[in-house]
Amino acid sequence: MNPYKDLEDVTDKLIIQPLINAKDNQDAFVMACELINEYISSNILEYKSPYFHQDLIYSVEELMTLQLCETCFRDYPEELDLIISKASKHCFENNYPRRSYGDSSVRFNLSKNEISEKIQYLNNIPQADQRSNEWFLQRHKTLTASSIWKVFGTNSVRNQLIYSKCSPIDMKKYNRFNLESSLHWGQKYEDVSIAWYEREYKTNVSEFGCIPHRRLNYLAASPDGINTDPESQRYGRMVEVKNIVNRDITGIPKLEYWIQMQLQLEVCELRECDFLETRFKEYSNYEEFVLDGTFTRTKDNKQKGIMMLFLDSNRKPFYTYAPLDISKSELEIWTDNEMKKHENKNWLKNIYWRLDEVSVVLVLRNKKWFNEAIPYFEEMWDIIKKERISGYQHRAPNKRKKRKKSFDNEIITINDTNNITNNITNPIANTKCLISVKKIDSPVTVKSKIVKPKSSMNDEDIIMKVQDATIKDTDTIMKVNDDTNKDTDTIMKDSNSIIINIDTEIYSN
Q1: Cβ distance 353 to 96 under 8 Å?
Q2: CB–CB of 274/240 below 8 Å?
Q3: CA distance 370 to 379
Q4: Would you give the DSSP letter of residue 93?
Q5: What are the structural domain ranges in the chain?
Q6: What is the pLDDT of residues 453-464, one digit of tens each?
Q7: Is residue 116 within 8 Å of 151, Cβ to Cβ?
Q8: Rounded Cα–Cα distance for residues 129 and 135 (Å)
Q9: What Rg, from alpha-carbon coordinates, does the chain have?
Q10: For domain 112-283+357-395, which architecture applies?
Q11: By C-alpha distance, which of 475, 465, 459, 454 is closest to 411?
């Protein structure tokens, strides 16, 4: 028998009072918005930092905790965190753009006519092809997006930028190639990344050359690409590609990349940029490629593909890229066609790759940040113009001094290592030795001595006995006896004889 069966269930009728009343909640929200806006306006240049949002939230939380420590929020800090989070979202939706957004979503319905006019304007600007001699020359005459972050760097980094812009351009260095460098890796996979992006978002991306700023002619930028398909949702959106070699992909643009995109957006007068980061891995050979999953996907469903590497008559690398998701039979036809098309080049090898990791985040143009940064750009350009005339050699990097080779812990220092074998694996512990190398034309006889090294470890004695021996000009034998390692022989062979001076207390026989 249930004694509670006649009781009314009032669970749904219960009214739970909020921890913080509505007025206090609203007052805290207004305060948070004011503090966030004040922080941003006072620290607008700090947008460039990857930690901008973290620093902002920390600063606001600290101030509000101090100001509200005697109120109801003292006992409910999680409620204050929630209010600050809501205030932050409100401010970045209405007053300021976020530094970056976590995906590539379409956030605005932009005017197609307006975008078409901007793209037409860019197409009408005379511009050299990327990485051509004319392109390098044009970039040398301006502050460009890829290096302008150095304006905000250390004195050493700023000097590097000034020196590079004042020095005569060396075109020969652009004709030298290192197929293993991270720079070449990025260029090599840029077309593959763009092809993946075009297929992923059903769009077309066009490349542009070095574009000067409409008003500030000392600024220029070369965007990796711009969406130019009028039917695409991303029409008019810029694309910046980074093919990563050995760092983590976090989805948060590094300082130099964020500044680079801001100048690109400003120069092209566009609103949005997709920041595309990719990590490609290469297979050792064709067999490893075909054994990993299907012909176009890995076992864990990652994109696979093939490229061909040729060398032209100047031994400059040239790549051709197989279409994504090409079948095995289609690849054979494509390969034959490429070999015929490029018969004037030397085929080097096929490269088989997989797209191991990819990230796309949205970065918006930040006009307020750029306007705040202009005085710093102008100051840098004024210095460059002045020192191109007055002299810039004081900006040259310091030459590195050659260091003398030494063993670990400075136990043994060798002043002349040209002929002495470095294969000394067990130096005597707690003993400082100086080995001086001298040319000796005739054998030298060394009288025996018993020596006690200065030791700081439990006053343990290490007895070194150098036996009566004639040191010939072909080899020297040092015999070391101690309590823990008896009859250990170290043989050092060399065309020169050596004399050994040991910093010890000497005891006579």
Answers
A1: no
A2: yes
A3: 14
A4: H
A5: 16-94, 112-283+357-395, 408-507
A6: 444 444 444 333
A7: no
A8: 6
A9: 34
A10: Alpha-Beta Complex (3.90)
A11: 454
